[in-house]
Amino acid sequence: MSQHLKQSWPYPELVAHRGGGTLAPENTLAGFREGIRYGYRAAECDVKLSADNVCFLLHDDTVDRTSNGQGEAKLKTMAELSMLDAGGWKGAAFAGEALPTLANVAAYCRGQDMLLNIEIKPCPGRFEETGRLVAQEAARLWAGAAVPPLLSSFEIEALRAAQAAEPVLPRAFLCEEIPANWCEILRELDCVALHCDHHALTEALAGDIKQAGYQLLCYTVNDTADAERLLAWGVDSLCTDRLDLLPARG
Ligand code: G3P
Ligand code: MG
Q1: CA–CA separation, 37 vs 85, rounded Å?
Q2: Is any ligand 1 atom within 6 A of the Cβ of residue 152?
């Protein structure tokens, strides 16, 4: 499958960051609903493990910033995480929004024909098991789907575990700065794509990455001029917070 994906990239040019960008509380179903409302066909979200190894959506290591709770996410069971309000911090209209499990998101996305980029975002010290368990859960939840979820991570150990557990699920190496040995990393992990901070990309590097046969996604692109420039350089997809500014396309 990864060989095939190197040739054809089923993901659209615009991907909603953390569910619905900044229009809704990040990594909640309210965000995904916002994506659908704006005509987006794909979203990215951050997935980690609860203390009892349930795959769920959260960006930070702690629940403090994006919920009414406090403390390290890896110490809380999914039952405890489910009690938190993950929407009220963003506004009264979102109060009561839950921290979704990956299973909740899979059901929503598959029902809406929305494609998903699962960023494997392990809590500290949980790289291997997060890569392995997220990949296994994704393979189970998307069994039989026409387009599989795309797994990405900043953590090579997590990607390696995902590769060992579910080799057919496509993978992308995620980076803030593009390392000099990007090609070896992509080859070793049998990735289909490189995902990078758009500030790290140059036209020459974009050309090299495309020339090497890989797809390219940039985050987080919130400006129309940046979006046009990056697409002109051959970038395949852009992850954005501004669904309202960048009309769904591709
Ligand atoms: O996957 C792209 C992007 O989400 C990576 O950065 O910190 O927003 O998860 P972050
Ligand atoms: Mg992310």
Answers
A1: 23
A2: yes
